[in-house]
Design brief:
Length: 365
């Protein structure tokens, strides 16, 4: 019986060996990462790595600003540079839409392995995550964004940071079997090699240049009359039902509160990942700042200024982070500074970037 199965077992062993060799040559070597589709989650991470490398100035004191799409839309590095004049400081927008501190941890490990490339790190952080009803630790896209950054040495530590068993298993597969995790991207590359070549060789450099010059969006939300007792507009203006459908979820969301257990888990998540990042940079004497980005177009009127949660206060007392005041940017939480309920427009981007630079610059040694 065993003799009859032996050829099959040898074939299976050979296939496994081929897959491991391909994995080592293609993925572990980093050869494939630059060719990942630009518009994918993993491709966004690769593009951000290239952007940071391109726009970090060797002769300047670079400040890397990390965040999600709120920073991608709301922070202008050129405006921040202009605000601090000839100080020698240079701001770099390292935001990736849809990402959070867990991904930033691995991004920084990749872009700054010695933790000495930047004069400071600044991260947008949710000071009060009480309005989030989901668990930060189980954010399903983290493994997709982190795929180009993860290593075999992360096989036990990284998956263990997810609370959900299915997400832990997905994280393990992403690390252990990148061929499987990236199979759709690989198949698309094989099916359309010339299209992918043009995208990476021609479109990505153009995207890098355009992203550096991006001015933000010109449109603004209307300044609606608000009933302070209902936290809701009394008149939806000329756009009527269309505007109401777009904005009502925002106003209802102001009253949503997470459960006690979810809030505690999300605060613990912030302590874990912000703490990991800050500990590496403290060892090199490099400051790590956290700040609350302008939260929404009517937050300044309807919601009290954000106050740092227990995790941030604990990290601050330990000397790991510097917390910018929760009310530092409340003056920009107005509809004229936003193009939707989450993202600042050109006017908000310019005003926030200037003020942010003015606050941070004196704190950088």
């Amino acid at each position: 019986m065993f003799a009859r199965l032996l050829p099959l077992l040898k074939l299976l062993a050979a296939l496994v060996l081929v897959l491991l060799v391909l994995d080592g040559l293609v993925f572990r070597s980093g050869l494939y990462a630059p060719w990942i589709e630009m518009n994918s989650t993993a491709g966004a991470t690769v593009g951000d790595l290239q952007f940071i490398r391109k726009y970090t100035h060797p002769a300047a004191k670079n400040i890397l600003v990390l965040g999600n799409s709120q920073i991608g839309e709301g922070f202008s590095a050129p405006t921040a540079d202009q605000a601090v004049g000839a100080s020698g400081l240079h701001f770099v927008n390292g935001a990736i839409a849809g990402t959070s501190p867990r991904v930033w941890n691995y991004l920084l490990r990749e872009i700054d392995p010695a933790s000495d490339r930047f004069a400071a790190i600044a991260m947008m952080v949710d000071y009060d995550p009480a309005h989030w009803t989901g668990l930060f630790a189980d954010y399903s896209l983290d493994s997709s964004y982190a795929a180009p950054l993860l290593r075999l040495s992360d096989l036990f530590d990284y998956p263990a940071t997810f609370l959900d068993r299915n997400e832990r298993e997905r994280a393990r597969r992403t690390i252990l079997l990148p061929l499987q995790a990236m199979r759709l991207d690989i198949l698309d590359f094989i099916a359309h090699p010339l299209r992918r070549y043009r995208e990476i060789v021609h479109s990505r450099p153009a995207w890098l240049e355009a992203a550096a010059r991006y001015p933000g969006r010109d449109t603004a939300l209307p300044d609606l009359p608000i009933d302070d007792t209902l936290d809701m507009p009394t008149d939806w203006g000329a756009q009527g039902k269309e505007l109401q459908a777009k904005l009502e979820p925002y106003f209802h969301g102001l009253k949503i509160s997470a459960s006690k257990d979810t809030l505690a888990a999300n605060i613990a998540y912030e302590h874990e990942w912000i703490g990991r990042i800050a500990a590496r940079y403290r060892a090199k004497g490099i400051p790590v700042f956290v700040f609350s980005v302008p939260r929404g177009p009517w937050h300044g009127t309807l919601v009290a200024p954000a106050q740092p949660n227990a995790a941030l206060l604990d990290l601050s007392r330990a000397g790991l982070i510097r917390i910018l005041p929760g009310d530092a940017f409340v003056s920009f939480e107005k509809p004229g500074f936003f193009f939707d309920t989450l993202h600042m427009n050109h006017l908000g981007r310019e005003a926030f970037s200037q003020r942010f630079a003015e606050i941070v610059a004196p704190l950088v040694p």
